[in-house]
Amino acid sequence: SPNLPLALVASEDQNFARHNGFDFAAIEKAQAHNEKMIERAEKRGKPVRRLRGASTISQQTAKNLFLWQGSGVTRWARKGLEVWYTALIEVLWPKRRILEVYANIAEFGDGIYGAQAAARSFFRKDAAKLSAAEAARLAAVLPSPKRYNAARPGPYVQRRTNSIQRQMRYMGGSDYLHTLDGRPGESWHTIAGCTASHRKTTA
Q1: How far is CA 164 from the centre of its chain?
Q2: Which is more confidently placed, 124 or 24?
Q3: pTM for this structure?
């Protein structure tokens, strides 16, 4: 099913097909937005609610596959390595492969990693059978997968799901995916169900 990879691009990185790993225009917009949010919060004496990120799917794949979350000094060290790994996978992998890996290692819930595990956990079906609405709902929780639940969406996730579905249609639906890397005849089964995904467990 092409629904999940399309939903991920619509939600996370609509310039995925055009950039080389880094979306500098999105970074500038995010910085301007975050500066305004911080300024407003300081004036009101309240904590900042939501800051906007600008990491591309390529950057997130590099971080999730090779690196760690980190905070403080370790976070900045990770960011430096993230740039290197992002550039590396953009050179070595086609866009389709980057998107495939991202879908199969992303965390969609607390300890739920990958498209297949998420589909089975939240919708009791294989990822290959996800509808457009279900795929959009999974993509909608990605900013905070431990805070939001795709099976029990609150108002924010519902609004975000509807927005993602509109963007999926605006992008041209599954035809958009066939433009990646200039290989229109290739299927997307490895992204939605055939690649092994897992749910992490703790002892």
Answers
A1: 12
A2: 124
A3: 0.79
